[in-house]
Amino acid sequence: MLVGRGSGVIRWMVDRAMAVAFLAAALAGAADRAGAYTASGDRNFPATLILPQLAPGDEFYLNYNMLPLSGNGAGTKTRSTNFTAVYGKTITDNVGIFLEETYTGDAVEGSGTRWGWQNQDGSIRYLAVNNLDHEFVMSLGLERETGGTGATRVGASSSGATAPQLYFGKGMGDLDIGYLRPFAITTFSALSLADTAPRPDVVSNGFAVEYSIPYLQSKVRSFDLPEPFDHLTPMTEVLFTSPVGRSYGSRSTALIAPGVSYAGEGWEFAMEAQLPATRATGSGIGVTAQLHIALDFFFPDTIGKPLFPNP
Amino acid sequence: MSSLLPLAAMADGSAGSVVGLLGGCLIDRQGQGHPAPLKMGEAVAVSDTIEVPAGGKLKLRMSDGSVISVASGTRVTVAAYQTDAGGQRQSAQLSLAAGLLRAVVAPVDHPSTFEVSTAVGTAAVRSTDWFIEAQPRATQVGVLSGSVVLSSTATGHSVTIPARWGARVEAGLDPVPARTWSPAEFQAVISRTDVP
């Protein structure tokens, strides 16, 4: 789901909790953009849980997130829970698609929890630059949410939306900065354009800062670290969303997500706290977790390779 | 030149023989320190060291049917190569001092080893088509098919490298996590080891 899209914009217009629904939609869509690993040279950018994946890949991952929301009386949401499955498939070595489904549970004050599917979502991604020596990646994406394919009771919008996206990733390993070389940063920017009113257009920006212990061990200095510490990457993600143009009552959000990722061989598991930075974002500390499977690792000769690999 | 030299040709106990040759490749028999020119069809035995100079290339067919293509600027020693009566590999060990080689390792129907060691790491496989390059302070491996386990000599830690992936290990460090190799990266090592 696109950031800030699928949460019943029509209802927002009459609901004082508009910003809450807005964020819930953003979180429901977070897994779609959550990153599987992306490699550039000796740098592996681990999967992120809030920010986008940097590049296309053959992968499957499951994401869970929960965030307490600022309920505002009977009928408003007090907590949003999302279970998301994402399948990524490469078409060529540089182009891939992603398909996503999210199942949402919205706890509503005074009336239990409403469950339902979010709108169907798909995207195409193009790896435009992958500079191995400088651990630099740039990708372009185009995401499409199909309106009316989800349940309005959990905020799925009847309006679809299309979002051009831009991604950057940069590892610091090419710099002469000693123990700081394992640092890397990834960024994400998108502009989500609604098909029809009253759904707002939304701009999203985010970044992640990570320190890769595997990179430290393999590129800087090998310390005698025990499992699981030698496979961990502490990281913090930050995501901002804001309506542009007519807001239809939606508000800006900011979410900070510190956590850690464990990298196995061909899989990753990560957990992060979700700290709302504004009242409109949420009312308490949430949590997100993700299991990522690299299909190109486990099935390199079948479903794990591009449909049309370069010769 | 055919790479299908009959196994019977190695009944003399040699580890393999030359089936492709380009340039003035040398062989140092049993570490005697007197390199001599290699010839097409010549046998290679355990403890022999082969040097492929700049501009040269070499292809060996080993006694188990494995084919090893050696790029220019490579120095490799056959540390061990044991096969059973049926010509199936029991253990094979190459020591790669410098340079690049491609190994198309013949499958066997029983547990066996095929290892290439460098100064900083060891790569072990069962059956696969793969590359290994020894650089001054690093070793990198790329796998076309099958899988390879690359281990660091210094730390003992290892990574598994599946088909279409590669990894490297630098001196004194853990192996770098494996990643997919681009077609261009594979093409670079293929062309360097392609013996006409």
Can you walk me through this structure?
The complex is a heterodimer of chains A (311) and B (196). Chain A is mostly beta strands. In chain A, 11% of the residues lie in helices and 48% in strands. Mean pLDDT of chain A is 87; it is low at 1-22 and 27-36. Chain A has helices spanning 9-14, 18-28, 30-33, 213-220, 295-298, and strands at residues 38-40, 43-45, 59-68, 77-90, 95-108, 113-117, 120-131, 136-146, 161-171, 183-194, 201-211, 232-244, 253-263, 267-276, 286-294. Chain B contains one helix and 17 strands. Chain B has one helix spanning 183-193; strands spanning 16-22, 26-28, 36-37, 43-44, 49-52, 57-62, 67-70, 74-83, 89-104, 113-117, 121-125, 129-135, 138-145, 148-152, 158-161, 165-170, 179-180. Chain B has a 17-stranded mixed sheet that branches. The longest helix of chain B has 11 residues, at 183-193. The radius of gyration of chain B is 16 Å and the shape is globular. The chains are: A mainly beta (311), B mainly beta (196).
Discrete helix count of chain B: 1
Order of helices and strands of chain A: HHHEEEEEEEEEEEHEEEEH
Broad CATH class of chain A = Mainly Beta
Distance between the termini of chain B: 8 Å
Strand content of chain B: over 45%
Helix coverage percent of chain B: under 10%
Number of strands of chain B: 17
Shape of chain A: globular
Catalogue the unreliable spans of chain A: 1-22, 27-36
In total, the number of domains of chain A comes to: 1
- Per DSSP E runs of 2 or more residues, the count of β-strands of chain A stands at 15
Q: How would you name the CATH homologous superfamily of chain A?
A: monomeric porin ompg
Q: How many helices of chain A?
A: 5
Task: Output the CATH topology of chain A.
Answer: Porin
Tell me the radius of gyration of chain A. 19 Å
Order of helices and strands of chain B: EEEEEEEEEEEEEEEEEH
| Alpha-beta classification of chain B | mainly beta
